[in-house]
Amino acid sequence: MTQLTMAKALNEGLRRAMQDDDRVLLMGEDIGKLGGVFRITDGLQSEFGAARVVDTPLAESGIVGTAVGLAYRGFRPVVEIQFDGFVYPAFDQIVSQVAKLHYRTGGKVRMPITIRIPWAGGVGAAEHHSESPEAYFVHTSGLRVVAVSNPQDAFTVLRQAIASDDPVVFFEPKRLYHTKGEVDLDAPLADAAPMGLARVVREGRDVTILTYGAQVQTAMDAATAAEDEGTSIEVIDLRSLSPVDYRTVTASVRKTGRVVVTHEAAREAGVGAELIASVTERCFNYLESAPVRVTGHDIPYPPAKLEKYHLPDLDRILDAVDRVMDRPNSLSGPAEDLSPEAAGRGAAVDGSVA
Amino acid sequence: MVHTLTPAAELGVDIDDVARLLTADGERIADSALDPWIADVDAAQLQALYRDMVVLRRIDAEGVALQRQGQLGLWAPCTGQEATQIGTARGLRADDFTFPSYREIGVVYARGARPSDFVLSWRGEAHSTLDPETMHSAVPQIIIGAQTLHAVGYGMGIQRDGGDQVAATYFGDGASSQGDVNEAMVFAASFGAPVVFVCTNNQYAISEPVRVQAAAPIAGRAPGYGIPSMRVDGNDVLACLAAMRWAVAHARSGAGPAFIEAVTYRMGPHTTSDDPTRYRDAAELELWRTRDPLTRVEAYLRSRGEFSDEFAASVQAAADDMAAQVRAACLGAVTKPAMSVFDNVYAEPHTGIAEQIADFTAYLDGFAEAEGEVAR
Description:
heterodimer, A: alpha/beta, Rossmann fold, seven-stranded mixed sheet, five-stranded mixed sheet, 35% helix, B: alpha/beta, two-stranded antiparallel ribbon, 45% helix
């Protein structure tokens, strides 16, 4: 085991993938000499050469579109989109080409492309640098979508994504880039949990929190706080958003009967909506209360000084826990007071005679 | 090589500002830039090009007929563009790789498509039936211009493999406005990728005339990206072959990409769903009918005594035979079973798809029990 930041774990994952398969190559803006704006590709161009670590022109559709051509030729491109909010110019190539070519060629052409996206907010960034676009890609069949929450997964799941014969959109939470964790660099990839499996990161009895990415830590913090109040929370790191590991999810919900989903992305038609619909379809008779979403608001990402009001934090998660536990919460109004004194005050207010 | 361009030139209708070897009347004229590239083309080779074009026109006519008879959902005719498609495609080696759009029927024909490949996708039986590995061609692209980036990526792959192939991509005057085409030229030029860009300027993007896409000849853009270009008579198969050989030799030599604008005319509608009488007049069509790519080759061959009745009959027989095969492949198509819609969404097992397969199978099985047959 080694202590690594997520950034370093990703860097090491890329290095291993390039060592394992000489058809793997990296493409992106500023990923060569600079090592990427987040240094995820630091040192890789000097190690593997400019033909395998390609500084591309500043054009996202061009990056993904040329990756498609390289895949036609039998390469396994790993594309870096510099920031989450910059992926949209590549949307057509991802949705119409990367996602569909295996299908429309009847399986004759594979698209083993990994699209890495430094992702989401909480880092005080400029506009367009803090977005959570994962639902667009989850909605697109033909893509696999994963989001990592810790250095070990960053290292392992990235290698799995690159080794996959399907295209994978790989979300890296920017605010965890410098968070350290234990990483086993020597464990054989074949022994790792499959890329599509969710992980129960904390077991509990009363409420299931479904989340992914940087929100996993926020949910864990909420679970710790709730435990002090006697509420036992199970936290599931989905890891894969497409497909979702519903075996793990439903096993938990059937145990707890209560569900909170939290993600930074906006609520409307988001991943949480799909999760709750699917959980309700599968576990309706096990649910003790209506599932609750704790998400970013349905607003454009706000200015950095205001992002704390947008990002779902520990307290908002605990409030949602109160809602699914049928306890007083922010939406339940003042607690009903059934004492005789309260009844008397009520009579006085409406003018009636007690 | 940059063919001299006059910015004021009428972009389409006046096609005097193009490189040409065969006039509309079938007169062989000299062009010092093009002549060296077709010095070896003898009567037999020209006859082969003519045969290709006649067969292609016959495939096109059969496609339109099959659509009118309700056998195809749609057809995108290429009549008028035979010289552009055949001349350029015959300038490629078998191990080069093409990235065509949906209208490049002649390109996929030249790459070895089977009769069924021309019709099954327009019939709605499959999105594509081409085999990219054996044909060395991508499946035809429908998203306008997207394939140009794929060609550049493929060319970057050739460079990394140390190969001497080239990637050739086809797109239209409408596509020239797309960001992807412009990004493709930037990437190709920056990396010196062995890519040939073939812009088929057929004057129209559905109803919009080329002047909506371009205020100056499209070939003139390429040098701005650092890519040599040539504007050629797209109805002159000899000129198209020569230009393609120049472009391919340039790319294959390691000198980077090359660009061809082939100026031609889409004689038919955009597709069988289109009505071109709403946006272009009969006189324009008649003008272009006098520039037909087939008749000029026939006239030239006749003038040389190389167009015998036997040759004409053999060409017609080849075309009719191909049309019969295309028709048979269309009428004999067997629609795949219901559950095939789930095939190849992913290359590896996927729990979400597996669950939907199970659900839909159970649903269909309900009908099978009721009807006493297997619905799926």
